Amino acid sequence: MSVTLLPPPLPTLMLIPTGIGCELGGYAGDALPAARLLAAASGCLITHPNVMNGASLYWSDRRIHYVEGWSLNRFAAGELVLRPVPRQRIGLLLDVGIEEGLRHRHLQAADACRASLGLEIGPVVTTDQPLQVQLQQGPSGSSWGTLAHPGALWRAAESLVAAGATALAVVARFPDDIGSEALSAYRQGSGVDALAGAEAVISHLLSSRFGLPCAHAPALAPLPLEPDLDPRAAAEELGHTFLPCVLVGLSRAPSLVAPEAFRPGDLEGDQLGAVVVPAGALGGEAVLAAHARGVPLIVVTSNRSVLSVDAESLGLGAEAPVLEVASYAEAAGVVLALREGISPAALQRPLSRSAAPGD
Questions:
Q1: Chain CA centroid to CA 140, Å
Q2: Which long-range contacts (CB under 8 A, 24 or more apart) does 4-9 make?
Q3: I want to staple 285 with a disulfide (CB 3.0 to 4.6 A). Which of 73, 163, 260, 356 is the partner?
Q4: CA angle, 57 then 59 then 65, to 5°
């Protein structure tokens, strides 16, 4: 019987920045098919909650590592190491500003994940003040937000860490925007996710302070039925809470470790073989750090957003290749070629001839 030996995994970073209105990945888990494909092509995909979170929908794959954005930046810069673990103990942090009925819906979602999926969830801590999230939009059209009481967030997280939590799931009460033009546009497949930027602020605050895996789910009142809903937004319409995908993602999120504590089996930035990123979104810390370390950038030109930060405007290309592809299917092909040791240039036509010195 013949045995086919696969090449070693090629750790690949998949980035789709949150709150910038990407055609693919700017909605409710609509980047999951692309992530699954890239995980199969690379054998090891590192990505962030924005890619994996589909509200009540999720996909668990041991080849995919679920890492919050601040931690991804530090990983790409070589300032922390990712340690795969079989499970995390997820502490659940609830905003005291969540109404009683909505609070029970989230607790029931946690209980369902414990009973049906076998996740370790607890303790549950409620903030001592409402977080009072406010949503904003930048000049580019990207979304962001602020908290009136970040100290309340930190105090609640400290209680969870002291009780033994190794990962943090946060549910904050977000402003209801029912009837707004922005929400209507989003549900019909245009515009920017108005919640995403503020969600990133919350998870960044906690990950940077406590060094633990973290992700956020907004608490919102149910929306009225929208018959003309865009399929990419449909996952957010399925239940009373967006929490299940966060709990599943965090349940096997890698632990965050100092570089000096590296041990075999850990992932470090030097092992990265490729970064896959939307066109126009090349200005992020992780992209620039990886490119400076010589990691090839695979730019998906069809995945446009409200940003237009490209390789030419940043002067990229000298430190590492910048490879433009039309789709995530093509990106997966390039990742597989790199994994197999095939030059992507050999797959393109016309193929230039080799030049001798002096030619």
A1: 21
A2: 6/43, 7/43, 7/339, 7/340, 7/341, 8/43, 8/339, 9/42, 9/43, 9/44, 9/63, 9/339
A3: 73
A4: 130
| Closest-CA residue to 79 (of 308, 241, 214, 260) | 260
Query: How many residues are recorded in the chain?
Result: 359
Asked whether the beta carbons of 97 and 267 are under 8 A apart, the reply is no
d(CA 108, CA 102): 10
Q: Check if the beta carbon of residue 322 is closer than 8 Å to that of residue 305.
A: no
Give the Å distances, CA to CA, from 53 to 57, 236, 245, 289.
7, 10, 5, 25
Could you name the CATH architecture of 90-251? Answer: 3-Layer(aba) Sandwich (3.40)
pLDDT in tens, 103-118: 999 999 999 999 999 9
- Say if strands 214-219 and 167-173 run parallel, antiparallel, or are unpaired: parallel
- Can you say whether the dihedral through the CA atoms of 97, 98, 101, 107 is positive or negative? negative
Degrees, nearest 5: CA angle 276-50-116: 120
In the predicted structure, residue 10 carries a pLDDT above the cut 90 = yes
Largest Cα span, the chain: 77
CATH 3.40.50 intervals, the chain? 12-83+257-346, 90-251
CA dist., res. 195 & res. 218, Å (int): 8
Q: Take residue 187 and report the two structure tokens written for it.
A: 């549900």
CB contact at 8 A, 65 and 47: yes
Spatial CA neighbour of 323 closest among 269, 271, 272, 275: 275
Q: pLDDT at residue 83 above 90?
A: yes
- Could you give the 3-state DSSP secondary structure of residue 100? helix
Q: Is 126 helix (H, G, I), strand (E, B) or coil?
A: strand
With residue 114 as reference, give the H or E element that holds it.
helix 100-117
Task: Say which DSSP state 198 is in.
Answer: H
Q: Tens of pLDDT along 211-266?
A: 999 999 999 988 888 888 899 989 988 888 999 999 999 999 999 999 999 999 99
Residue 34: CB partners within 8 Å, gap ≥ 6?
14, 24, 25, 51, 328, 331
